[in-house]
Design goal:
alpha/beta, nine-stranded mixed β-sheet, five-stranded mixed β-sheet, 20 strands, about 30% helix
């Protein structure tokens, strides 16, 4: 079901639901809709109507969020918030190779499907928002896994990154994993623990947004109002699956650290631009698939960390088959031909997807075979990389919390109903989502921006201004983040440590009725908020150095 149709259904459900809220409507005025804020710079009737409906939906949702019984004490006030299970990284950045410095790296992984019957009907597939009934897998094509690498320069501490096959992952779930790692992390000088997802639209739901939303709205809000007496009827992602995921991710993290061995680390890239398609104007993206290649001194199995920004939707957004999509087949071919362990990380993807035209595949080839062919074609490009640059053993990383002003009340309500598990605080009038960013440097050559959510690559790499093509008619006004690092090469680890939705340049937000991305935009000012936070974070590393 399209997100536009879903938005209409949600608005109707919510409009009828709001009459049941047992408080006086005088507490929220229709003046709060602020029709004056609707942009008329590029006026037409359709745009005006779409923006007006956006405002009406926000009004109804604000009403529910503020006054529905059982929600009063769910979130703390912003002044009372204390960070939990948050790894800040390092205070100072090294610029020279320290005495005794040496790259060490380890890998581990696990299947999230072992021991379960994925086609039992107990698990929802991610990928499309389903208001009436969630999708369950009818067959399993490959595997849904977690892959972990641990890396250190022998001086700066250990950095762990887990990459999960899944649609999204909330920061609250990241905190559960970090909490279980605390004792081990302290004993093994772990300075950062990051959890990313690949955003497959065809894996068991790890986020929660793909449960039957209409059922959740009725049953979960009813449970809140009834004081929890129908807790067993709540609609949420499968908790047994999540517990299995937590346990296997934690175990894989520990195994990766214990498997670390000395070796050499290098960076290289391959141009796959003709295999990528950008669906949203203004169009621009990083055409490269980037590779960090670790070669152990003892000649044992190499570790390749790959990054590219491409949606994993080779079977469409709503298939009935469970598959980890083309990254699985990138990994499979590399493993077969080189023996290397592979960790693929999603980059800045926004509305970027696959393009098979240049592969000249048969027109009658089915979707699964096209998915395999695409993954293997990308793998061929990676295997052929011959521009590797050796990286000195200098590892730097620093993390920072960021507060987003929540403007999408649909996602706020979903969080209240335990459909999502973000970290949210109350402000005087509204809510803020507390998420996090990170900045990592390898060998003074590679800068890595660690981003929550699905970033617009224009924020990182730059590109055409939308200007009067945007509804605001305003210029963006910020330099791309790559300009704030002295490193020659830039990578993005997207969907890391939180699903903060789509992150657009502020002047390019339209309406949830006109673009597929907007319904999953948590904050209309997320772009500028994150860019300013990244600039401050990178600047703080320069000052510390």
């Amino acid at each position: 079901m399209s997100k536009k149709v879903l938005a209409v259904i949600l608005s109707l459900i919510l409009t009828f639901s709001v009459v049941a809220v047992p408080v006086g409507a005088a507490d929220i005025s229709f003046d709060d809709i602020n029709i004056e804020d609707i942009n008329i710079e590029n006026f037409n009737i359709e745009n005006f109507f779409n923006q007006l409906i956006d405002k009406l939906i926000a009004f109804v949702l604000t009403y529910l969020n503020r006054y529905w019984p059982g929600y009063e004490d769910q979130w703390v006030d912003q002044e009372e918030y204390v960070p939990e299970h948050f790894y800040t990284g390092e205070e100072t950045f090294d610029t020279e190779v320290a005495d005794g410095a040496k790259w060490e790296m380890g890998y581990a992984g696990a299947s999230l499907l072992d021991g379960i019957d994925a086609t039992s009907g107990d698990y929802f597939l991610a990928g499309t928002l389903e208001p009436i009934a969630g999708r369950v897998p009818v067959r399993v094509i490959d595997d849904q896994r977690v892959r972990v690498y641990a890396v250190t320069d022998g001086v700066s501490g250990v950095v762990i990154q887990a990459v999960i096959d899944g649609f999204g992952f909330s920061r609250g779930d990241v905190q559960i994993i970090r909490e279980r790692m605390e004792e081990f992390a302290a004993e093994n000088n772990v300075v950062a623990i990051n959890v990313s997802v690949l955003h497959q639209h065809s894996c068991i739901d790890t986020l929660g947004m793909n449960v039957p939303l209409a059922q959740a709205l009725i049953l979960n809000t009813g449970n809140a109002a009834a004081g929890g007496i129908i807790e067993d009827l709540k609609v949420e992602k499968n908790q047994e699956f999540m517990e299995n995921l937590y346990a296997k991710t934690v175990l894989s993290m520990k195994r990766a650290v214990k498997a670390m061995k000395p070796g050499e680390l290098s960076y290289g890239s391959a141009d796959i631009g003709e295999l990528i398609y950008d669906k949203r104007e203004p169009k621009d993206f990083d055409p490269n698939i980037n590779r960090l290649r670790f070669v152990p001194d003892d000649g044992t199995t190499e570790i390749w960390v790959l990054e590219a920004g491409i949606h994993c939707t080779m079977l469409g957004a709503g298939p009935d088959e469970l598959t980890a999509d083309f990254p699985f087949y990138i990994e499979r071919k590399i493993k077969m031909e080189t023996g290397a362990n592979v960790v693929y990380v999603q980059g800045a993807e926004l509305a970027i997807t696959t393009d098979c035209d240049t592969l000249n595949l048969p027109e009658d080839m089915d979707g699964i075979d096209r998915m395999i062919a695409y993954g293997e074609a990308v793998a061929d490009r990676v295997i052929a990389i011959d521009n590797d640059v050796k990286l000195d053993p200098v590892l730097n990383i620093k993390m920072a919390e960021v507060r987003l002003d929540v403007t999408n009340e649909i996602l706020t309500l979903a969080s209240r109903e335990d459909v999502l598990n973000p970290v949210i605080v109350r402000t005087e009038d509204d809510y803020q989502m507390i998420t996090e960013i990170g900045y990592m440097e390898l060998g003074n050559e590679v800068a890595i921006f660690i981003c929550p959510g699905e970033f617009d690559p224009l924020l990182i790499y730059g590109g055409p201004e939308s200007g009067d093509a945007s509804w605001s008619g305003e210029e963006w006004g910020y330099e791309p983040l790559k300009n704030f690092t002295s490193c020659e090469n830039v990578m993005v680890f997207g969907l890391s440590n939180d699903q903060a939705g789509y992150v657009l340049r502020d002047n390019e937000y339209h309406s949830m009725f006109t673009e597929n991305e907007e319904i999953n935009v948590i904050s209309t000012s997320a772009g500028s908020t994150f860019v300013n936070a990244f600039i401050d974070l990178v600047d703080s590393t320069k000052a510390a150095a």
